[in-house]
Design goal:
Strand content: 5-15%
Low-confidence stretches: none
Strand order of the largest sheet: 3-2-1-4-5-6
Number of helices: 9
Number of strands: 6
Structural class: alpha/beta
Distance between the termini: 15 Å
Mean pLDDT: 95
Shape: elongated
Length: about 230
């Protein structure tokens, strides 16, 4: 059967839970630095450090941990204890070993569209961590192609999808900033599947007027959406 679609999926918080591990670690970070900063101020300074460090450390747990260390040094005026630094590093190692838990209905949704689509995984972040999570997810055999990229831009999407000669092409993910908007800029369909937890960096205004933008509340709705578009 000739495939009529190329459908790419984001990974973290689209296929499996991810952000909740960061939130739990941030909560513990706020407890550890409670004598030095209010939680709201601390989180704002951590987010600023994360954004500032993206060009150097990239996305993922390692950059997050280094940003926490930097923030701890900053808010304590270089008085943070070795014990705190050691615990931050320990929390990072624990995050890199977190078991993978799929979101509900993910495998069924991918299997439902696979008969008529080239199925891709396009994710960003630390190479080893993303490879680990994909292996543990059990979803690997469903993908015709896996791309782990340093960032998601319109040019990157255009380059990846150029080698798939199908009439219809789509990117599906939980991040408006990374999964949807640059995909629309590359001429693809962009499908937003909101997750209850979203990193502030990934938030953006929904491009509601765009004719190729769609939003669904769960990945289980994707097969019906595609049927309506075909």
């Amino acid at each position: 059967m000739q495939h009529t679609w190329t459908i790419a999926f984001d990974a973290d918080d689209t296929l499996w839970h991810n952000e909740r591990g960061f939130r739990m670690t941030q909560d513990r970070f706020a407890e550890m630095l409670s004598d030095w900063a209010e939680p709201t101020d601390l989180m704002a300074r951590l987010l600023a450090a994360e954004k500032r460090n993206l060009a150097t450390y990239g996305f993922g747990v390692k950059g997050f941990v280094l940003s926490m260390v930097e923030t701890a040094i900053d808010v304590t005026n270089h008085q943070v204890s070795n014990d705190v630094i050691a615990e931050l590093l320990s929390m990072g190692r624990a995050m890199l070993a977190d078991p993978v838990e799929l979101l509900e209905g993910v495998q069924d949704a991918i299997e439902a569209v696979k008969p008529f689509a080239d199925i891709l995984l396009i994710t960003k972040g630390d190479l080893l961590d993303q490879e680990r999570k994909l292996a543990q997810s059990g979803l690997g055999p469903l993908f015709d192609r896996v791309e782990i990229v340093s960032d998601k831009t319109a040019d990157i999407y255009a380059h990846i999808f150029a080698s798939h000669d199908t009439p219809h092409q789509m990117m599906v993910g939980n991040s408006l900033r990374s999964d949807v908007i640059p995909a629309l800029e590359a001429g693809l369909w962009g499908v937003h599947v909101p997750h209850e937890l979203t990193w502030e960096y990934e938030k953006a205004e929904a491009p509601m007027p765009h004719r190729h933008f769609r939003q669904i509340s769960a990945l289980s709705q994707l097969p019906d959406l595609i049927t309506g578009l075909s």
